[in-house]
Structure formats: C-alpha cells, structure tokens
Design brief:
The protein contains 10 helices and 8 strands. It is an alpha+beta fold. A hairpin with a 5-residue loop joins β5 and β6. α1 runs parallel beside α5, α2 runs antiparallel to α5 and α9 crosses α10. The termini are far apart.
C-alpha cells in the first residue's frame, strides 16, 4: 500500500466509524464522518472537490437515487433540514478502495480541511459552554450563509426555586419590555478590552412563530456568532478574572434576564415619564 493510501486509511480509521451503507443494501459499507461543528460553506466546498476527484456528476447521483445503489457516490446528510447544517458525510468503502495514489492524497487533504474546521468549532463551543456553566446548552449551527453560529438554549437550573408561572412571566416581560441581547452586549462592552469594544456578537433568536404552551419550560434563547465565540473564549482563557466576569453576565442572561435588562434600561430610558412642570 502506498504512503498516501495508508495515510488516508489511517485518517478514516481514526475519525470515522464503519457502518452499513444503507438499510437493506447488502454487505456494502461506508465510512461515516461526523461534521456537526464544521463551517458549512467550507465543508460543502471540500465535498465538491472530493466528488470532482472521483468524477461524481449530477447524472451519477440521479442514477444512484433512482436505483437506490449509493455504493459509488459520496453523500452528505443534514438531519435538521430544512435548517442549514451538515451532520455526516458518508464515503463508501468501495470508493476509497478504487482511489489511485494521487486521488487518495487529494481526498485526504479535503478531509483534513474539514476536520480542522470541526476541531476549531468544537473548541469554541466547549469554551462558550464553560462560560455558561449548567445554565444553558450550547449547540453549533449554521446561518443561511453557511457561517458557523452557536445556539444558546437556556436550561432550568436544579437550584432554581421559581415556579413555572414566575419564569413564564419573566420571559414574556423581558421580550415585551426589553431587548435582552442589546442589554447583555452593553454590559459586556464595559468589561472587554478597548480593541474589542464597539463590536456586538450576541443576538436574539426569533421565537415569535412558536407558541409557549403552559407546562413547557420558559427558557431564554440567544445566538452567538463564530467571531464572538472566538473572542470571549480566548479572553476567558487569557484572563481568569475577566472570564469570571463574562461568565457571570452570561449566566445572569439565562437565569435572570429581566434583572439584567432592567439594570441596563433603567439607566438609559425612563420607564415612567412624569408630566412637565407648569410654569
């Protein structure tokens, strides 16, 4: 076996799992490469490169769909469709075995490029998760441009003694009266270094299309872009005191969003306007 083929096989053995290609597809197997933390637009480019290397055309893909035989095509799957994203890449063993030395090296370079992005995304996700502690779940996703973003989904802490009605009322009040992401960003800008000020990374998630039913957990949801995740995780790593301050604000946004917003808006806008004094 050539050096390039051995390197490719070693990479696949380390980063992939081998499973049947399709249910009821006989003995054909494939490598399953998990890609949840990747940069979607970059991963799609790498996949197109690999398909070009093995001369996989649209006609070949259409034939595979018609026949149900995917043993000679590279496929990408997104279980969260129609939302953007990519969960796995499936590479049939038959495709890998048919590669020549040059093709094997080119496929390896493409897979290494995807893995580099995955490692970067995973590191940033874990860094942000550490700042939120157990108050939220941080998940990697993609926006419509294929850029990486992080969904921050609040969790009810075991130490939270508030009743459902209190948490529900707090979330509704926060959404109606205040802009939580704007308030959180304003607090963050006061503690980050000057070269990072004036840049806002935390955004709200539009949940107006979903109805909050009684009995379901009322939780806060935010979105953090990739640049913001890199900044805050790096700041926390370099300066533990600053990391603790950022973490405190992040956790308060999940557990006490109304209080965090009120503290910001009370200094910016008068909630009760008094009539002007008569001369």
């Amino acid at each position: 076996m050539s050096a390039s083929k051995k390197a490719l096989n070693d990479f696949l053995a380390h980063h992939c799992e081998v499973k049947p290609l399709m249910a009821g597809a006989g003995k054909e197997k494939c490598y399953i490469f998990h890609t949840q933390d990747c940069l979607l637009f970059m991963a799609e480019n790498y996949i197109e490169e690999m398909r070009a290397i093995i001369h996989q055309t649209d006609e070949i893909e259409a034939t595979a769909r018609e026949s149900g035989d995917y043993s000679n095509v590279i496929m990408a799957y997104n279980w969260a469709a129609p939302e953007p994203g990519m969960d796995t890449i499936r590479i049939p063993l038959k495709v890998v075995e048919a590669l020549d030395d040059k093709q094997a090296l080119m496929v390896l370079r493409s897979l290494e490029g995807i893995q580099k992005d995955i490692d970067e995304g995973k590191k940033r996700r874990e860094g942000i998760q550490a700042l939120f502690h157990d108050t939220a779940l941080v998940k990697t996703s993609s926006n419509l441009d294929g850029e990486r973003v992080y969904l921050i989904i609040g969790k009810v802490s075991a130490s939270d003694r508030r009743r459902y009605a209190e948490r529900y009322a707090e979330q509704v009040a926060t959404n109606v009266l205040f802009d939580l992401p704007k308030a959180l960003n304003a607090h963050l800008q006061k503690i980050v270094p000057k070269d990072a000020q004036g840049r806002f990374f935390v955004e709200g998630r539009d949940i107006t299309a979903r109805k909050i039913r009684y009995g379901a957990d009322a939780i806060m949801e935010l979105v953090l872009n990739d640049e913001g995740a890199a900044l805050y995780s790096e700041l926390a790593h370099k300066d533990h005191r600053l990391g603790d301050a950022i973490s405190k604000l992040f956790r308060q946004a999940m557990t006490d969003p109304f209080g965090l917003s009120l503290k910001h808006y009370m200094g910016k806008h008068a909630l009760i306007k008094l009539p002007p004094k008569k001369k």
